[in-house]
Amino acid sequence: MTQWFPASPALWQGRDDSAEAANALRLFQTVTLSSDFTPEAYRGQIAFLGFACDEGVKRNQGRPGAAGAPDALRKALANLASHHGHERLVDLGNVVAPTADLEGAQQALREAVRACQQAGVRTFVLGGGHETAFGHGAGVLDAFPDERTGIINLDAHLDLRHADRATSGTPFRQLALLCEEQQREFHYACLGVSRAANTQALWDEAQRRGVTVVEDVHCDSAREQMAHFIDGVDKIYLTIDLDVLPVWEMPAVSAPAALGVPLATIMRIVEPLCRSGKLQAVDMVEFNPRFDDDGRAVRTAARLGWQIAHWWR
Questions:
Q1: CA gap 81, 198 in Å, rounded
Q2: Minimum mean pLDDT among 95-109, 186-200, 239-253: which range?
Q3: Are strands 4-5 and 89-96 parallel, antiparallel or unpaired?
């Protein structure tokens, strides 16, 4: 596969407490590292797949740096305790975008995700800017052509922009157009949306496409809407733009949220998705290590990723 590189074992390091007890383990001791892209060898497992790209952020006039996120997130995850569910994790390396060819990078990610999903491997993609979502989502749609696939985006932004070329602000309009091309329904829900950060044109586009929208100020009461959405689909692709979190919890993103949705509330939204038995794919995007001076933001992101893997059924 072009643009693919294995993850460095040096990223998966941590404190060794195994002398204390046989089950005193951390993620670096239970994750499987693959030196080749061979998803067929890991049926039934959950694969970390990095998307080292922020070309979409650059095109969207954002703060670049998210290309360094996948490896930073691995380092933060490595030393967390390994509990039930974490033994299923395998690291299948990074899809890297070394040039400005965003479309080529998205296609490489799409093909990698499709291969994983068709091999019975669920995908946990570490972005990257939110341009990650088109490659990841397209791969999931390709793998399940006869299934009703629901896309749930936790995000301050609708990311339904019209643009001459792909950016981090266009992925869900691209996925909507792909659904039209594949002659299937577009099931999209966006939670945590900041009305202040989305123009009326974007709200109109969301309404035209039948998007389920929950504003940041209403996320505490979103469980019923989510339950209804989950019931209406067969597979779920969950994408989390970390700028959905408040700036004091997540300052290291391209567009920090002045209000945002607190991590504890995000956890309550995510848990039923993870336990639904329908969750097929997850990604976390937009973390930018350049703006994480004290390591607080990467720890927040890692904690969220750790919890998802623990709950994922």
A1: 39
A2: 95-109
A3: antiparallel
Q: How far apart are CA 258 and CA 235, in angstroms?
A: 32
What the block records as the tokens of 79 is: 């030393």
Residue 101 known to bind ligand? no
CATH number at residue 245: 3.40.800.10
State the average pLDDT for the chain. 97
> For the chain, how many residues are written?
313
CA angle 81, 119, 312 (to 5 degrees): 35
Q: Is 130 annotated as a binding residue?
A: yes
Q: Does 228 carry a binding-site annotation?
A: no
Residues 266-275 have pLDDT tens digits of: 999 999 999 9
Structural domain harbouring 108: 4-311
Take residue 57 and report the two structure tokens written for it.
Answer: 């952020």
Q: How confident is the model at residue 98 (pLDDT cuts 50, 70, 90)?
A: confident
* CA distances from residue 231 to 113, 273, 277, 312 in whole angstroms, order as listed: 24, 11, 11, 17
Domain count, the chain: 1
- 17 annotated to a ligand binding site: no
Q: Is 157 annotated as a binding residue?
A: yes
- Among 57, 69, 71, 100, CA closest to 255: 57
Strands (E), the chain: 4-5, 32-33, 46-52, 89-96, 122-127, 149-154, 187-193, 212-215, 235-241, 279-285
Say how far residue 212 (Cα) sits from the centre of its chain: 19
CA–CA distance, 130 with 310 (Å, rounded to integer)? 24
Whether the upstream peptide bond of residue 127 has omega within 30° of 0, thus cis, is no
User: Rg (Cα) of the chain, in Å, rounded?
Assistant: 18
